[in-house]
Model the fold of this input.
Amino acid sequence: MWFKRMTLEVWFDDYQYEVKYDIGESAVKFLTVSDLNIDLQPVQLRYGYHLGQPRLRALIAEEYPGLKPEDIAVTSGAAEANFAVVAAIVNPGDHVIVEHPNYPSLYDVPRSLGCDVSLLTLRFEDQFRPDLDRLERMVTPKTKLISFTHPNNPTGSMMAEEDLHRLVEFVEEKGIYLLFDETYREMDFNHTLPPAATLSDRVISISTMSKSYGLPGIRIGWAATRSKEIIDAILAIREQVTICNNALGEVLAIHMLERKDEFLRQAQAHIKRNKRIVSEWMERQEHFEWVYPEAGVVSFPRFKEGVSVDPEHFYRLLVEKYKTFAVPGRCFEMDNRHFRLGFGATPQEIETGLQNVNKALDELLQ
Ligand SMILES: Cc1ncc(COP(=O)(O)O)c(C=O)c1O
Done:
């Protein structure tokens, strides 16, 4: 078989409905239909425009100065956009470089399509920021695609704006495509980076309603690019897989994007409060160390040297006995002494979840 299951999604599928305290998720707290206060009765449940409803594409295009609605392909989540963009660009035997750790499909898809994938692994010592000198040395004449994600999942790191410009110049000079996953972009309250697709037609930005808007269940994401070739290729690929988007999801996405400023203001206050709870906990405890997450709702702490605990045992005790969900580092092909600690849930959920981390650890250290 070409594709194998994703370790990260296996962990979610096994436990996400079994837990009470979710300190592993990478989205703000999920919304319900009633939170949106919308009448869905008139929605026609017919096939939709293959690249997404014109109104939705227009609203998304507003986020990318210089891009038009025809430069947007709306997809079933960022997951489909990532798949289609990679499939549009690579052939078996091509070389692809992926920033790592990352959402695994960024490297699993090109691997499954027969590419030779090199990982540009971010280092704790570099504050999880990418080293572009190292990246440039990894490029070969066969490199077709480079993938980056910032704000990064799972580390919460940002790259500097000058580095993004350097990267874009580099891919243009080499004739490589850059996939820039901006799934967490609305949770960078310092507006560190411009939307990458606005910088060059060699760049494809990917984003979604799943994370900053708390709507993963509507399965609406998108790719934005000035490359008509890529938009046409996405269309050809999705017509074999999903054909068009979910009609209800499109209507809910339009509704949210028309009110996004107000929603994001609230989300920002919520995230700041939660981040303070996690930071204060990090300062109080003595067994973990972290790189302070610059943006997004996730971080990637690790057990300090000398804490003699089997990490897998710890994550399972936490989730099975204490009903508290964190994501083991192995789900990102990283050292399992790291784990993803998210802070999108309610403050109460996070506080109890962190107390449970202490309890589970005390139990293992006794
Ligand atoms: C970086 C990144 N890209 C894409 C996705 C997939 O998101 P979606 O729900 O929009 O398919 C995720 C989900 O965790 C992610 O972290």
Notes: The chain has a mean pLDDT of 97. The chain has two domains: 7-25+261-365, 36-258. Residues 26, 77-79, 82, 103, 149, 153, 181, 183, 208, 210, 216, 221 surround pyridoxal-5'-phosphate (CB under 6 Å). The two ends are 45 Å apart (CA to CA).
